[in-house]
Automatic annotation (TrEMBL):
Keywords: DNA-binding, Phosphoprotein, Transcription, Transcription regulation, Two-component regulatory system. SMART domains: HTH_LUXR, REC. One of its GO terms (molecular function) is DNA binding. It comes from Rubrivivax gelatinosus (strain NBRC 100245 / IL144). This is Two component transcriptional regulator, LuxR family. The keyword Phosphoprotein applies. Residues 142-207 form the HTH luxR-type domain. PANTHER family: RESPONSE REGULATOR UVRY (PTHR43214:SF3), TWO-COMPONENT RESPONSE REGULATOR (PTHR43214). GO terms for biological process: phosphorelay signal transduction system; regulation of DNA-templated transcription. InterPro entries: CheY-like_superfamily, NreC/VraR/RcsB-like_REC, Sig_transdc_resp-reg_C-effctor, Sig_transdc_resp-reg_receiver, Tscrpt_reg_LuxR_C, WalR-like.
Length: 211
């Protein structure tokens, strides 16, 4: 039996994933968490084989949790599920120690297959991610400026470019507005941009948000 913990801040999303996994006779959900704090508390008393983890959590992000587990030497295998397209976060998540990456907009069956795959200690990637990995190996290394951003800086970039105000971002990420302003300033400096308008244009041109 594959024991799974779900971590997503949206209860409806967790329910949907839980119901999908419930149809698999070899998988059982042993716990759920809505943010990083709940996840850490849950994992202290509940063991699991696979952690199904969302990237966009309030407070510390899913990528933060991924890095923390890796630093601790945790044996839990992490499957990232996200609303973000593969080309935004998949490679970054896999490099950070994730065993797989699944888009929430994909077929429900995909999550079942992904959980089974990572539980066996194998990487799960979609054909789109596999193609990206092949291209990254065969194409000349041309690093885009946003690849130099930290996980939190990239998250801030995408949220600003999606039209969210700094106050809304601060509330959603459970950070102070001042901290979000610092992330924004770092993004503008690293990308050599002057304001939010230029930031949004950059994000659209590089496929980080829809036009």
């Amino acid at each position: 039996m594959i024991d799974v913990i779900l971590c997503d801040d949206h209860a409806l999303i967790r329910r949907g994933i839980r119901d999908t996994l419930a149809d698999a006779p070899d998988i059982r959900v042993v716990g759920e968490a809505g943010d990083y704090g709940e996840l850490r508390t849950l994992m202290r008393g509940t063991s699991c084989d696979v952690l199904v983890l969302d990237i966009n959590l309030p407070g510390r992000s899913g990528l933060d949790a991924l890095h923390a587990l890796k630093d601790e030497g945790s044996a839990v295998k992490v499957l990232i599920v996200s609303m973000y397209p593969e080309d935004q976060y998949a490679i970054r998540a896999l490099r950070g120690g994730a065993f797989g990456y699944v888009n929430k907009g994909g077929e429900p069956r995909q999550i079942v297959d992904a959980v089974r795959t990572v539980a066996q200690g194998r990487k799960y990637v979609t054909p789109e991610i596999a193609q990206m990995l092949v291209e990254s190996l065969t194409a000349p290394v041309l690093e885009t400026p946003h690849q130099k951003l930290s996980d939190r800086e990239l998250q801030t970039l995408v949220m600003i470019a999606s039209g969210k105000r700094l106050a809304d971002i601060a509330e959603e990420l459970m950070l102070s507005p001042k901290t979000v302003s610092v992330y924004r300033a770092r993004v503008l400096e690293k990308l050599q941009l002057a304001n939010n308008s230029e930031l949004t244009v950059y994000a659209i041109r590089n496929g980080l948000v829809g036009s």
